[in-house]
Amino acid sequence: MSKITSKKLGLSFSPYEIPIKSTRSGAIFRIHPYPTKINFQSIIPFILAHTKPNEIVYDGFAGSCSTGFAASACEIPNKNLLDEFGIHNQSHIEWGMRKAICSDIGQLPTFIGKTLSTIINFEEFENIFNKVLSDIEQNWNWMYQTKDPNSDHGTIRYVVYSDVIQCKKCNQKSTYYGLFVDEKQGKFLDTTKCKKCQNTISSNNLKKVTENVYDNILEKKIKRFKRLPVKIYGVTQKTRWKRTPTNSDLKQLKKIQETKVPKKQKPVKILSGKERWGELHRSGYHTGITHLHHFYTKRNFLTLTMLYEAVKFFPKKYQDHYLLLLSSYNVANSSIMARFVFKEKSIEPVITSNQPGTLYISNCPVEKNPFIGIKKKLKDLKQANNEISKWNSEIHVSNASAQNSHLKDNSVDYIFTDPPFGENIQYSEVNFLSEAWLNKFTKNKDETIISRHQKKDLQRYEQLLKSAFLENFRILKSGKFMTVIFHNTKKDVWNSLQNAITSSGFEIITSSILDKHQSSFKQTTTMGAVKKDIVLLAQKPERILNKIGKNVDIEKFLITSLSKNCNDKERTFDYLFARYIGRCFESNQEIKSNSKDFKKILSKIANLDNNSWFLKND
Hints:
The chain has 20 helices and 24 strands. By secondary structure, it is of the alpha+beta class. The chain has an eight-stranded mixed beta sheet with strand order 1-21-22-20-19-2-3-18. Strands 4, 5, 6, 13, 14 and 17 form a six-stranded antiparallel beta sheet that branches. Strand 5 and strand 6 form a beta hairpin. Helix 3 packs across helix 4, helix 7 packs antiparallel against helix 13 and helix 15 packs parallel to helix 16.
């Protein structure tokens, strides 16, 4: 990245000279999952650099309102935080609350932001919550009661289920868990042998067994994948235990399956309810899933129905916070998208949440006890409420498209935003399950994504991006700045972003890196994925400039970058690709390479040593 100093930018300091880290820590970050969320603390340096106290910060792709919380947090000086970001000269920084205007087209994120930014009397809320939960548990906790290995009374913490697999050669039926989970080594196997005929079975080419069952919510028979419980994890007093299911467990599950949902409600279809109900539909694991309740075990769906119904027992001033608490745990942990993984050097499985940004159901889904999980979430909500109550916040949250802010011309002092990354996250689809419980649904007509299901190709995506940036240009004061966070691996998407920014009137000044502590699921699993987000600084010029730089030659760029005396982090693939993208934006040049092609050129001139690249001639 070209290092543009604060003096050249006219700022008190520059947060663009070194990468800013974004961690997944803190109660405000943890309270509710949301795809590609940035920790609000990482946004503070940008707001401090570009604004003065009481000035207005805007974010039209606000998500769950991190920009708003960052603007409020500027009220209380935090020297240690800036020191962590490598910003040591703080003499010219003006601390003080900034006003924030945050909008998003999604119903779920604006609900999160608006609710969380509203301060409540938490002691009173907690007392009501504990009473309500106790009453529900008294009636429904029987579903999670069982016997431990010593035949004493215990409580289910979670249950591991397994798809049933059929050998293609001899038709022998086995559980996926029994075939592919190696408990002794603590790992999933890629291939295994049929226990009857010794035929090789690959985890990538499975024949799953289906079954026809009566769905007493839809009041008809449905076809679904057959799953069986294989491990039960529980607790007796303070002692944790695990065991295989017994006949008593199976009888209990049958009783639960036959129990009707007390609250008469119309079943909620998943989007259109058609065979292919969106970009995220996969026949490999969504067979039979047409309605909301199919994403849950019957036990957890009954529990959640009663928990959401109990909102009526809260005073109106606390209802949204109660719903936020339920939502924070619900889809990520109470659905069958919860799963387990094996971590390095450990044979014990780690129970985790869903894969963010997807509707993925593993071959071994996990059913967690919501009563236990939601009680733990209460602590995060309390900490977040206490932290936000320290600020004299002025955050305005609205549910609106980025293309129409309803703000006056030249009324905003700074814009910090991270628009959707092309087709990386299908937000309205991912949010649909949470929104169904809230009975608030996103109108996705102007959702700025690439989606075949919504008939939005790259050209339409660029049009929507441009329209949003034109709106940003209109409301931003002349000479002021916009910071854009973005991530992608495809050159065409990067070029669309560049065209959208520059054709709306902005001039791209410089670029940097947002170093997220933990990558998203797609960043982790995609070959050639870039695991760093790009930070772009654009300015609404007081006069129009046509800045055209030299075309960026990738090989020369890499030779120059790797010839420098740089540290190991700066020699990683994702840093080098991020620098290349930034250089193209700074010189207003077309991006010529996808991440995969970029890696091929890099491999031609450099060798990889412990995740760092070194020139072959060195």
